[in-house]
Amino acid sequence: AYERRFPTCPLIPMFVASDTVNEYKSEDEAIHVIERRCKLDIDAPRLLKKIAGVDYVYFVQKNSLNRRERTLHIEAYNETFSNRVIINEHCSYTVHPDNEDWTCFEQSASLDIKSFFGFESTVEKIAMKQYTSNIKKGKEIIEYYLKQLEEEGITFVPRWTPPVACKLESSTSHTRRPVSPAINIPDSATKESLNNKEILNTSSSPSEPTAGTPDDKLDADYIKRYLGDLTPMQESCLIRLRQWLQETHKGKIPKDEHILRFLRARDFNIDKAREILCQSLTWRKQHQVDYILDTWNPPQVLQDYYAGGWHHHDKDGRPLYVLRLGQMDTKGLVRALGEEALLRYVLSINEEGLRRCEENTKVFGRPISSWTCLVDLEGLNMRHLWRPGVKALLRIIEVVEANYPETLGRLLILRAPRVFPVLWTLVSPFIDDNTRKKFLIYAGNDYQGPGGLLDYIDKEIIPDFLGGECMCEVPEGGLVPKSLYRTAEELENEDIKLWTETIYQSASVFKGAPHEVLIQIVDASSVITWDFDVCKGDIVFNIFHSKRAPQPPKKESLGAHSITSPGGNNVQLIDKVWQLGRDYSMVESPLICKEGESVQGSHVTRWPGFYILQWKFHSMPACATTNLPRVDDVLASLQVSSHKCKVMYYTEVIGSEDFRGSMTSLESSHSGFSQLSAATTSSSQSHSSSMISR
Asked: What are phi and psi of 346, to 5 degrees?
């Protein structure tokens, strides 16, 4: 299929023609190498072509087909202007190491513009535009020729076998794999995923087994039993994302079912799924959500007046949650508990839902990854549209949508009154489109007719308040006594207490405005330990020492010393008049930390005084021969919307005599959510590594 794009391809307008320069075939026909000179009509401004003095650009492409190893490697480089611009591209088609019915595709390229008549920036933009366009069309083109082959009756290419003589010579040393059917590239992938990483990147070794799950992640029985029906493309996306987590997040990682939810929420676009998954894992770590069921007890007010609870399961085996929203005094609950306690209770409900899904998967012998929610709106009135109550509801929806995607299998809304459209208008914009499609709304007693409740829930478990025979133990709700209401100040203090029950602090890092933490050391040989996550952007981590204390940050100053933002604070301690080497010194080598990494380490102090931990915005390095950034950094910068980074950090000072016995606390209780650990790193001059190993 790939060879059919030569000598020219109508699907690539810029590809005008090609000539074969060299060709080689091995005697056993296992190796076929062909080198072509390709003529391209680049979409560039006419003035630029005139200045350059060319109408066409020539590239040399070398295709190496190895039928024995079942690989196709493609290398290309520019012939035109090679003394001014260097372009290298490499593509490879290989067989997946764990499933030989899959084709793995990998593509990479580099661009180095030395000089181009003063139009370096323009040439770079043109090159990026053309390359991006080609990547997006790559899958479309290969599918076009596959379809063309099928129309000609070619649906299978026999596996290469060595000639008889060769076969006899190598029979003792080679074992062939069984013949597999023709490779079929599925069409189920979304258009957005037509990129240079369409199928699993095979440059890495196959993912290692995860504790608590079957060893062979590609086993068909495992997929059917725990994950459900997946296309080859979806399976590949799951493996890629799981492998990335295993390589970058040391320790325990989320289960396949959890990873799969985030992939489904983003239509199996790996980059988007990885972004929201990393954000969610960081959020879970910061608020210790993994332990909420074991460590947090809901206030009695919630247990008495929150009209919701779990009630058996639906016909598909999904756990069933019943919410009598019309009978619930949302205003009273918010006034008595505050927004944060209400949110935390909803999070505990979701965590319980995940646990019940796992249980039902074992009970029913098939994957259950979501639950059904039945919402009874009888009694809903204008009181439920109280502004702070709606605000709390919208916040809850936002948090749940971000951290529990694809957990709602179906939402049955019953007995919707006339006021419901008003509430729906307020909340629907905050609900994901995929989630909205799962909503079924019934007015009055419509739920009792055809297509109603009986289609989704067995008659035996329909709650009594809906006309069924099953006693439902969900609290009836009712008005919260005003005697339980609390003042705004009390609620604010309670809210702060709820969400600061974490040892981690958040900070924002801006370009030109690092975040700095001051640590005073009295006894030399103390140990400064740190544990931080880079939530957004890339940063440089530094440690400095000063004999004199820096001036405390001025809270009123937004630009010079202190910046406060909803996403975290920013404090700068090192005065601009201070000089490195005179007023303060660097005691560790700078450590560049990428977005998504989790870094732990320590420094054994040599002198008393003041130590400053600094998180600084990491700017892209320029090429050695030019002032232009590297191509991969340009691509990375497109993902960042502003010159802002976010870090979440924890620091601790340990006395020298307690060092050996206390370091385990940093690894265990303080960093309990170990699946977030992206890279356990310590600086090159730090003594912590040897201490830990002892």
From this structure: -65, -35
Distance, CA of 79 to CA of 72 (rounded, Å) = 22
Kindly report whether the peptide bond that precedes residue 7 is cis, defined as omega within 30 degrees of 0. Answer: yes
> Six-digit token pair at 582?
């005179």
Report the distance separating Cα 536 and Cα 670, nearest Å.
22
What is the C-alpha separation between 350 and 280, in angstroms, rounded?
14
pLDDT tens track for 491-517: 766 655 555 445 567 788 998 889 999
Q: Looking at this protein, which amino acid is placed at residue 389?
A: G
Residues 6+ positions from 491 with CB-CB distance below 8 Å: 337, 338
Domains of the chain, each with CATH number or no CATH: 2-152 (3.30.530), 220-287 (1.10.8.20), 290-483 (3.40.525.10), 503-550+569-619+641-671 (2.60.120.680)
- Nearest Cα residue to 130 out of 618, 506, 631: 631
SS3 109: strand
Beta strand 568-571 with 515-521 is unpaired
Phi, psi torsion values for 294, nearest 5 degrees: -95, -25
- Please write the tens of the pLDDT for every residue from 79-104: 888 878 889 999 999 998 878 888 88
Closest CA to 112 of 76, 83, 71, 132: 83
Residues 6+ apart with CB under 8 A from 304: 475
Burial readout 58-85 (b: 16 or more C-beta within 10 A, e: otherwise): bbbbebbbbbeebebbbebebebbeebb
Instruction: Show the tokens assigned to 645.
Output: 């980074």
Contact 442, 405 (CB under 8 A): no
Question: Which residues have a Cβ under 8 Å from the Cβ of 594 and sit 6 or more positions away?
Answer: 534, 538
**For 244-282, what is each residue's pLDDT tens digit?**
888 876 545 788 899 999 999 888 998 899 888 888 888
Q: Tell me how far CA of residue 114 lies from CA of 40, 627, 631, in angstroms.
A: 21, 9, 13
DSSP 327: G
